[in-house]
Queue: 3 jobs
Job 1
Amino acid sequence: MNQFSDRRYVFATAIILVALVFIIRLFHIQVVDKSYEQYALSNAQSVRVIYPARGLIHDRTGKIIVYNKAAYDIMVTPRLLEPFDTTEMCRLLDITREDAKERLRAARSYSYRVPSVFIKQVSYENAALLQEKLFQFPGFYVQTRTLREYTSPVASHALGYVGEVDQSVLDSDPYYQLGDYIGVSGIEKAYESYLRGQKGKNIFLKDVHNQTIESYQGGRLDVQVKVGNNLTTTLDMELQEYGEKLMSPYVGSIVALEPATGEVLSLVSAPGYSPDLLVGRSLSSAFRVLVADTLNPLFNRALMAQYPPGSTFKTIMALIGLQEKVISVKTEHSCFYGFYVGNIHTACHLHDTPLNLIEAIQNSCNTYFINVLKSTLQDVKFPNTAESYDNWRRHLLSMGFTQPLGIELTNELDGNVPESSYYNRIYGENHWNYLTIRSLAIGQGELLITPIQMANMTATIANRGYYITPHLVRDIEGEDQIDEAYLERNYTTIDTSNYRPIVKGMDLVVNGGAGSTARNARIPEIRVCGKTGTAENPHGNDHSIFIAFAPKEDPKIAIAVYVENQGFGTTYAAPIASLMIEKYLTREVKRTWYENWVMQLLQPVVPERKKDTTANGTEE
């Protein structure tokens, strides 16, 4: 009897232990471990991502320049697929059976459980047809998206474009999923985090047939979509359109700034392209066409082309000479068709002689500014040429040369002002002097400056000694202010007082008498200050350069125009700059005869469809 009783206790204990194991396991599954709950929910829920409308982009006057239009992506979740009529779906979406099979394979390889794009950007008509019969195609749904639309076919380099994310983005930013869109270039890229908004999501319950029946928990777990922030740019679209019109026959660029703020009024790169080419399903094919064009319309010459500044650089030579007190406004030099030392000769054009500093700027005298370089590099304050050169270069760095200025666009390149070590390596230490590098005095030789740096140089002179970093956005909706870097003044190492004679010389370049090199840039009732330049191009005709600001007092616009292969600065670049200034300051161009002459009668020398952005040469 006792033996039987002992066995009963053993069996009871075993049963209790087994029960405890089951209870503990059930408690773990139902309370502690959420994976089974999530698995069950994933088979009973449908999560739909809601994509936000991208922020609108306005010009400085409030005019909309970039907005959105509806597009429709057909999404697929492979694990929810059931046998369906492939022929009917192909008919509705206007694709082939082979194409459909390939798209399904791609979706399965991406994820079996996560929705991905089956076919993107279908027409409204096709999307509507599929939506009506969607019950026949379990696992598919229509996702509403937006594409960019433009009010004018200009400013493509400044605005940039939106494209589908690549694998590098997917790997680095968890916000994006396969098939998402992102800013690829321009403002769209620079301000992506503001423009894109924030995705929302709706969670639905499904029945046994995978049909949506109701919102999960009454929508309490849904995430509200947040529309992207609108941007107000610094661009004046009327001026931008006009600049692209003027540059349409040419290769080159225009950069116009507001000196007091650093705001970019116009950013023209010619040849350009219409921004609506890089939108939608045709983006890839259009991009290939643009890449194949040997004039490279995708190349942003305003920020990426590196040119010798030519005679425009003489203004900077004058500033440094005055600052270092190696010259004064009254310093004179004689010139007889050029600079001569022994068998060394640098040519110059015919003009009165001798000239003082202001007259030398007005007449663009090569000899005068080579002598300025001589005085600067032979300054007794420094023990050798290399140290005086480094001091000369220090002034250039303060003006924003050599390094990118810092505009929002990511493709801005730097310029080139060699260090003294560069010449030490070439000629040997203490074996070079001003004669060796005299071409720098007239903006040639190794000097390279981008058009935006030239415009910034002009704005610095207009401001009499400071610049604000050029930028393309003046206001972000919902933000108190833009980046502080675009609000701060950057002062140069040149005293304000030394800018006054340079401004006077640039005034005479346009408004002076005989010897003035840009009298054709005059505008009635507007005092324009400018400087011409011409850079020799070893691959073809010379390049035409002109910088200017206006009005002389309280300048509202500073501009740099670069026209490739078109000769002297006064011939092409100066008239274009003059018309741009008139357009901006008066809102209309009254000199229609002059406009017609620039657009039609000049008959530009059109280069072969190949680009050249690294020219060197002599100066006018």
Job 2
Amino acid sequence: MNLESLRTLGYEEIKQEVVRYTVSYEGKRLAEELEPMIYMTAIHRALEETEEAKELLERGASVPLPSLEGIEWVMSLIGTGYLFSEQDLSAVGVFLNSCGQLRKYMASKEQSAPRIAAYGSSLQELPGLREEIGRCIRFGVIETQASRGLERVRKQLAVAKDRLQRKLDSIMSRHQSILQENLVSMRGGRYVIPVKREYHKQVKGAVLDQSTSGQTVFVEPYEIAALQGELELLAADEAREEGIILSMLSGLVEREQESLRLNIEVTGVYDFIFAKAKYARSLNARNVALNDRGVLRMNGGRHPKLKDMVPVSLNFGQSYKSLIVTGPNTGGKTVVLKTLGLLSAMVQSGLLIPVEEQSEFTVFSDIVSVIGDGQSLTQSLSTFSAQMKSIEGMLRFAGRGVLLLIDELAAGTDPGEGFALSIAILEELSRKGANIVVTTHFNELKSFAAAAPGFENARMEFDKHTLQPLYKLTIGEAGESYALQIAEKLGIPPEVIRRSHELTAQQRRPEVPERARAIKAHNRHKPPLDSKEEPVQGDQLQEASSKDSKALGSSFEIGDAVYVSSINRTGIVYARQDSMGIVGVMVQKEKLRINHKRLKPYLSKEELYPEDYDFDIIFESKENRKKRKLMRKKHVEGLSIIHPEEEV
């Protein structure tokens, strides 16, 4: 999938939402690696797993997910010879107990959640290791019964401590009058008594420390020195016996490392699935039907990050496979693109989505979006240049099963060139079989969508009285920009608005010509496009427009749109038919000379352009237009305009 497009659509934010619902490091890792899949079987399974988990949660189930606290540390040290501590081994024991509980829980859900329950059978309870850890360690401390050697040493330690304590009690009682306080302390791991400084010589022993004030001296009486030495030796024996036990348990963990890794993996999968389910519940999301036929039906789709959004419904893939969306600014056109793209990516990631019932999504091999101006000061890219740079990539990688989302196609340039470029781009992308959803303000694209096979108009609804967007998408009709009404509401002077209406009236032409409607009606009666059909066929255009050729006449006028059967392209007539029957046709900015017999009428110039439209905008370069403008003002010696076809 196109990573930059996914970022533009906000896919990374969705991933982080899922990550927040995970409870283990392994579940978090899987959530962070989440990405759209392209194989329908895998997508279908992931969606059903998430749906099963969501249903369990909605029934109030408390899923006993194992804690992986401390386990990552243990697994990172396996194979290094590290001696695991009591806390490390306790974490392993708790983990194995939890795995046993989860296995039993999932076994009880085989009927209601068969897909996710199947993972539970892979969990290894490892009773030998679990019981041995439980026998040897309790509450993070090695049990005395863990080994006979440890039991023997601890009994000896208990006896030695008792003898030492009785001896200390006797000494404290005997020297009570010279003690600073009746309390035994420890210094350097040895027992001492607190003696007043002026009397410390009365106690036979070694001075190990003194208080900060110097008034108290801590003395180790010689009478207990030997007993303390014995105690230290026994403590060393205890540590050695405990080390033997820890080494034995560490060896058991090492031997079961593969089973432990499998348990961690299964735990992570469950954590990941239930994180997706928890996120789905927060969105009130549901599962959708899937197909690989290119048919998409989104009923009441909502953007996951826009809680108060008006749901959007759209569909394509049957009588048409691409949409041209029109309507006013702030009307929600861009939101439609982002919602469609993001929800499609989420579905293919196994995530349930916020849509209404009867929604059906198709599997795209890629989702590519050009949304936002993409301006770059460091690369000196304008809005138009940045968009064209992205479109160039689309033209290279477009193909069947690819969803292309384009916001304000060819905006930021000369309108005359912009709409022509837009049509040429859309024709090429459609020829390659891609699904396209594009937003635009070009009226010419409305006519194009009405006539071109595979395309359909859609508009964002707008309240004409309040001049407020309704955020509702209606398919089959083209929208208006309402620019003048909005400008008037925002305080543009009445005389400016009035003059704008006058100029608009002079240039206005039908937005959806009758001929375009006839062609579209013809196409709707044809079978739906499948993955093997070409989006544009010459015989289709010839059949659809045969009745209109009489209306256009046998000759072609400059500005007429024609279909060139020999190259399966549409173009614009720039030179009338000559005595040899040759007509000049511009196809994607290339001027060709073509026999009139290879041309079929497509759209007349009256349907495409306003009256008195300056065709130099389309046919002439900017340099030649400047020269012609200068020539009209005055004679300039040596100034001439040479067309490529006029050169010898």
Job 3
Amino acid sequence: MKSNIRIINIPGKNFGFRGNVNFTRKIKMPGRHALVSLLITLVIFAPIYYFIHPAVNIQNPGFWGMTIVFMLVYLMIKGIRIERSHEDKESAVLPAYIFIALICLFLLARFADSRIFHAKKYSSILTVQEADIDSIPTVSASSAIALMDTQSAEKLGDRKIGSLSHVVSQFNVGSYMQINYQGSPVKVAALAYDGFFKWYSNHKTGVPGYVLVDPVSMSAEYTALQEKLRYVPSAYFNEDLDRHIRFRFPTVMYDGLHFEIDENGKAWYVASVYKHTVGLFGGKQVTGAIVADPVSGEVTKYDAADVPDWVDIVYSGDLICMQYNDYGRLSHGFLNSMFSQADCKQVTTLERRDDDGDTESYSDYGYIAIGNDIWIYTGVTSVNGDSSNIGFILSNERTEETKYILCAGADEFSAMRSAQGEVQEKGYVASFPSLINVDGVLTYIMVLKDGNDLVKMYSAVNVEQYNTVAVGTTQIECLNKYRKLIGAETPADEKSFDGFEEKTITVTAIESIVIGGDTWIYVADEEKNIYRAEYSDVIEMMFVKTGDTLTIYTDGDNFILQAQP
């Protein structure tokens, strides 16, 4: 049946318009205007995404935030066009609904993912195994324990770079990372461009090298690379490594981009790939790593089980501490963590005041080299906030294998204050300690620094009795004194000092001086060098006289008579 209705034009006066309105054209107009508004918004957001580049992933809060802002800008442009061209206002209704819906969904997802509803899931992300104190390195492995903190490493690295005029004028030193290199713990940092103009002047040749700091010998060395680093985090535009990785993996969520070197000294950058295991935004867990070659720009994504052995940091210490806190607090449910707090524990936490005077809490941890891996260690305490530990955790930063060691004693910050009290007249500050096993006795060992963040002394503090404290100018001197305090015998092969070299000298003068109740032997040689040692470590010196030729092991200041094992 053929319709007789043929309405083409409608008198405008019936709708408040002058003249006639073409109804067919009126229906098509919103689509065309909407497309123009969308194109304008895309043009605005293209450079914004280039610089911000969040992962295009529904689990990424940053992507949601950018999408919401995108819709807001679109609505603003749409409103301007409606205002100027008298476009139908109803065409903006649907985008406004989408904008409101996105905000509501985002807030709802954040709330639904909270620990209130998923305490058990959060508490089961980290797997913790019971272990004994044998998991802690013994004192014979003290040379494999990095006792230098990042601030001290920065000072040594800056001094080394400061002597290289062609480098220091164009570059600064990036962030230091604790890794295991050829069986020893070291801190490494790549050079970084010192601002946009320095990058522009040097990006064609690239970053020339990196700094390696040995925390045992307290020395730093600069490694000049034959193949310069082009894709680095301090670069700009397409040479910015973070942007380079993002455009290679636009949907992958990653963080923790940092510098490492392999066993051959080749430079790499590594980032941790992660996902959320609780709802959309909760329960962060690492699933693998991205390894980038800063020379060629080649980027490879690995699953967690396939990460190369030389990579040391896949699971960050901050993430492990956060996951352990969920494990310790939420294992018996959210309500228990808030009220009765039965069997609730957390990593040791220190409160400090920020620049605004507000109190903030933070967790700290130390590093221990075990085998070919770097493990973080931190104490575990009750949530009551006292100054004692109920145990410790060790966690592998490459595999996230985590061990819990039951041992009651003082927390790390109490031990630091105790060590500082032994040298309070010097005003030294203790760094966060490491943990060692001295003949079955768990012991904190740490460095004491001066106001310039340079290491001056070492201190050992008994975990269970933190008033048992020993200090010394070297690790071994400190540990020998500590052994005497706890009644342990010093093995002969531990009277050597790491970093000492053999030297034959002719004795020109020898004196003994009592300092702080301890007797020290000072020896001068024909080159006018002066060496010192605690008398109890060099008793054989009682038979040495002026003119004798003597073979010693020295770092330039201290000396011993025993050979390195």
